[in-house]
Structures are given as structure tokens and as C-alpha cells.
Amino acid sequence: LLVALAIDLPVSAGVAIIGLFALFHGHAHGAEVPENAAGLEYMAGFAAATALLHGVGMAAGLRLGWRFRGLARAAGAACATIGVGLSVGMV
Predict the structure, then answer these.
(1) Which end of the chain lies in a sparser environment, N or C, as judged by fewer CB atoms within 10 Å?
(2) Every domain of the chain and the residues it spans
(3) How far is CA 4 from CA 30, 43, 60, 70, 88, in A?
(4) Do residues 80 and 72 touch, judged by C-beta distance below 8 A?
């Protein structure tokens, strides 16, 4: 929603918000680990995949810059809409 509305936050507020969501997101992935999976290897794979996805996303964002900011805002709005749909059981 912050992306969709192009809200400019102080860095400290952004770090706090991202950290809070990362904590809950990580907990959700941790709860999904299959019982027969080797925990350390499974989580290392998750961490590597996450790092790769973040790196690609940041590189794309820096490369595309301001030319596609409308697309980024639309993606933020789509993510917020889907999140609300998931939380109320419509998706």
C-alpha cells in the first residue's frame, strides 16, 4: 500500500515496517517446513532463493528507474488488494 500510494517514509520507519513484515513472513515459511525435510538445508535454500529474488528485484528497480514508476505503483496496489483478499478469505 505504501508503494501504491508512493508514500515517502524516513529510512528508520521503512526499516521498522519491513523488519516487522519480514518477521511474520519468515515465521510463515518456517511453519511450512515439511517434517521429513532436513531443516538446515531447507532453510539455507530458502535464504539463497530469497537473496536471489531480492537481488534481481533491486537490480530491475534500479535499472528501470523512474520510467516505470507507474507500473511499480500498480504492482503495489495489486499486492495490497490480494493481501486484503487473502485476509478476508476471498482469494
Answers:
(1) C
(2) 11-87
(3) 29, 31, 18, 9, 20
(4) no
